[in-house]
């Protein structure tokens, strides 16, 4: 069975003669059958050569022309009107397609020769040996996965070569007086995946899935031809702008943008069409695996007044040996075998503030984890391991969550409420009746300038906050405890001592004396997330 329709015979003959591999020939002929690309390339080459020979034999056999319509005179006239440059060679004769029997196609696209378009990507890198190499890399990385998505990064000069092959073919077809349809070329990446997906799937034992979170990627490079894009920077300088995170301005997207912009005649001046075959194959620079992030959520209690929520580092110097974040992440990183993590929580407490009650909601993103499947029982054991490792913190309701679910922790941040317990000192002696009126104050409006203690990391602003309720507990002439429910984001310490008048009103101004805070505890963070788990 012929791999191509008769209308594509000339295209196939020209491409094979220029050193293009059989799979790229299929791409240029807009062949969409995945099964054809998966054929062994030697078999595909043999089929193409047989197709070309049989077509030629039909042309040479006069019996094949019996009953055929005579050539259209109008077409012949139009060809002659174009002059020798368009329709005739330098001897005044009509150019002929190279004969399949002359051996040029077999020689220029021989199995050992590197394709002048794909630089070997659709040749050696579709073979079982390379597939096994990729799978060995995947298996040695020890990932848990139930499907995979395959991605490939190609050298940008492949786009230049593809354009050059097309323009070269277009020129030759025009010279031969043959039409060239404007069908889209099958993308190299797409054809490569058609070939490689079933092989990887069979070797790894899991299906390929475009929505899979486990990615297997291959990065190709071709040092021999890497400068072939450079002429585009002169022709289209606006397309190539330095970027901080890019090593080279010649990115694939920049090259494609320039190819869309450059005029055909300018391209032909700077690049050979069709392109010549290189000496060397592409290099598979990197074979990488990456698992999508896993998200773990829970609540933590902090019982120490000498423990920051996150590492406390000032001017490169560490102030305290540990943090809430590190005490939790140490165990999660080890169990999930992740590369890194990102910690977030519903607010934060100062280093000297405890978090009691049901704790503070937190979430941790574990980046590129090797292990992703945990049962509820395994999560409980992990929670217990964290709790047994330190008396400074405890976690509860530890569970796997989705990325979207984490948004609930941050929803309506300023509308949430938090409950505190503050131990307060006053310079002047107080009696019970001096503080009793605080219990009757509801929805007290505050104006808080950014506190002096955080002004180095937060912008200067005046924030309006609410103290919803207060309840006082007399201790002695200079001490009392105040329990208060406030709007999230209220600076409680500043509400007590006034921060040199930057928070108004404050406990000092309400009592008409100097007040300061000795201890502060967070007793509840009123966020209904993550879901409470049964013990």
UniProtKB/TrEMBL annotation:
Gene3D superfamilies per the UniProt record, alphabetical: 1.10.10.2050, 3.30.70.2510, 3.30.70.3190
GO biological process: tRNA pseudouridine synthesis
Superkingdom: Eukaryota
Pfam family, one: Pus10_N_euk
Record EC number: 5.4.99.25
Signal sequence range: none
Region of interest called Disordered, as start-end residue ranges on this chain: 83-105
Domain Pus10-like C-terminal, first and last residues per copy: 295-526
Keywords carried by this UniProt record: Coiled coil, Cytoplasm, Isomerase, Metal-binding, Mitochondrion, Nucleus, tRNA processing, Zinc
InterPro entries assigned: PsdUridine_synth_cat_dom_sf, Pus10-like, Pus10-like_C, Pus10_N_euk
GO MF term list: metal ion binding; RNA binding; tRNA pseudouridine(55) synthase activity
Domain Pus10 N-terminal eukaryotes residue range list: 115-289
Catalytic activity: uridine(55) in tRNA = pseudouridine(55) in tRNA; uridine(54) in tRNA = pseudouridine(54) in tRNA
CC annotations in GO: mitochondrion; nucleus
Intracellular or extracellular location(s): Cytoplasm; Mitochondrion; Nucleus
Family: Belongs to the pseudouridine synthase Pus10 family.
NCBIfam families: pseudo_Pus10arc
The protein's name in its UniProt record: tRNA pseudouridine synthase Pus10
